[in-house]
Amino acid sequence: MVPFFVFIAFFLLLPATVLLTGSFQDGEGQFTLANLASLFDPYILKAYSISLQVSITTSLLGGLLGFLVAYAITVGGAPGWMRGILTTFSGLAANFGGVPLAFAFIATVGRTGFLTALLKTVNIDLYGTGFTLYSFWGLTLTYLYFEFPLMVLVMTPALTGLRHEWREACENLGASPWQYWRYVALPILWPSLLGAMILLFGSAFGAYATAQALTGGSLLLVTILIGQQIRGDVLGNANLGYALALGMVVIMALCLTGYTVLYQRTTRWLK
Amino acid sequence: MTNGRRATFWAWLWGLVGLLYFFVPLYGTLDFSLRAKRGEISLLAYQNVFGDPQFLASFAYSARMALLTILISILLVVPTAYWLHLKLPKLRPVVELITLLPFIIPVIVYVFGLIRTFSRPPFLLTQTEWTTDLLLASAYVVISLPYMYRAVDTGLNTLDVHTLTEAAQSLGASWPAIILRVIVPNLRVAILSGALLTFATVIGELILADFLVRPALGPYMVLMGQSRAYEPAALGLLSFALTWISMGLIQFFSRGGAALHPSGR
């Protein structure tokens, strides 16, 4: 009990405090708000904006695809073997990330990758269309590999919670499938949908290893920028790194709060 | 039931899209990893990986660190979670929140904080190799805390902690004996799932090892990614297999564990 709290204090709370106080100090340790003000430097705003774009795009696309797959294996009534494989692989792929994931996508849709070569044999030049794996859309495609399975994992119990009686009641009252989804199913599901997508957003926003291994740091995400700042003071202000980090933590904390609130609303219906 | 048939069509379509998204990169990686020899299928990339002493060394290092992490994590989490269940249930939400912090703090931010805290006095830890290893293991414990704590917490929820403790006490068991011989055996499935998830997290971890400059598997893989073409694909597939084995073991053991619980052992 005591060792646990000492450990947490030393290895989690202490570094967190150092980050927090560092954000409000200048090089000499004097109090300042200049670091926070520097966050609005165009270069840094750009990094935040790219990070947000990647995270929002992947959470929307991953959310959509994950929802549809979860739909297929629950209400949609996909065959049992398909359900089994998709459920197992969702658990697997949601835990697959980092450098190996980047390698898998380089081998598949990289410049000489398997799919790129396969498409060439049917006269589709993937890289001729302007696509490259080492860019925004490439990163999005790669993140989706662990994002949509996460959505499947979160949405499957929610969709299983939709009672048959609700659908039957709608049909008896003459509602079309569209009306059922629009006025009954989606209003019940939206907290879990939104909550799950916040989770996806967070997992993309904090990711570093995949992006670093894939783009070698050429796509300037906030996480990449922090990494460069650790290796050497690229921003010309040693304490600006603290503020960058603080900004990320604030966004992630907002995410988790949003998720918790929505999660509580969801469980109300599932019980 | 025209509706039913249409639903099945969409289910098939999206199910297949999902399957393709899973398997095309896996198959692509497999295919690519077998093409190290021009014009023929060979296991050359795998031979190169397993023949590279640096791979073996970094894998051994990461495996050792993973075991150390699991050991520290169990020692910290099991008694704490047990005590919270037994005596201080009111504190549980607080500890739950603490164990969620690693989800809020991205690892890159966390390592930044670690370096700024422990690379200068009064808590200088990055000076020697073994203190850096200690710092790295502690950081691994922190980032895998959500998995370990949740696994053990869920395991404890299925036990009647109070009755077990009173029974053991009335038979004269000391606190260490209760934890070691009553609680831990009942939690072994939970502990094992936590340990396997921790292992899967630590073994391929890049950021902490890279920025603390330790010779782990993650930094080795990045190095290979920059210098080789086919070996990274082999490494990617091997990592996936390792994750697969960990997850498979968890499912296997938790199924067996569910059957064990009602016997009240």
Name the features.
heterodimer, A: 271 residues, MetI-like fold, 75% helix, B: 265 residues, mainly alpha, globular, disordered N terminus
Summarize the structure.
The complex is a heterodimer of chains A (271) and B (265). Chain A is mainly alpha-helical. In chain A, 75% of the residues lie in helices and 0% in strands.
What does this structure look like?
The complex is a heterodimer of chains A (271) and B (265). In chain A, helix 3 crosses helix 9 (177-205), helix 8 packs antiparallel against helix 9 (177-205) and helix 9 runs antiparallel to helix 12 (240-270). The model of chain A has no long low-confidence stretch (mean pLDDT 87). The radius of gyration of chain A is 22 Å and the shape is globular. With 271 residues, chain A is an all-alpha fold. Chain A has a single domain (42-270), classed as MetI-like (MetI-like fold). In chain A, 75% of the residues lie in helices and 0% in strands. Chain A starts with a helix and ends with a helix. The longest helix of chain A has 32 residues, at 42-73. Chain A is built from twelve helices and no strands. Chain B is mainly α and 265 residues long. Chain B has a single domain, classed as MetI-like fold (Orthogonal Bundle). Helices cover 80% and strands 0% of the residues of chain B. Chain B has helices at 2-33, 44-51, 53-86, 92-104, 107-118, 129-157, 161-170, 175-186, 188-203, 207-211, 217-227, 231-260. In chain B, helix 1 packs across helix 12 and helix 3 runs antiparallel to helix 9. The radius of gyration of chain B is 23 Å and the shape is globular. At the A-B interface, helix 1, helix 3, helix 4, helix 5 and helix 7 of A face helix 1, helix 3, helix 4, helix 5 and helix 6 of B.
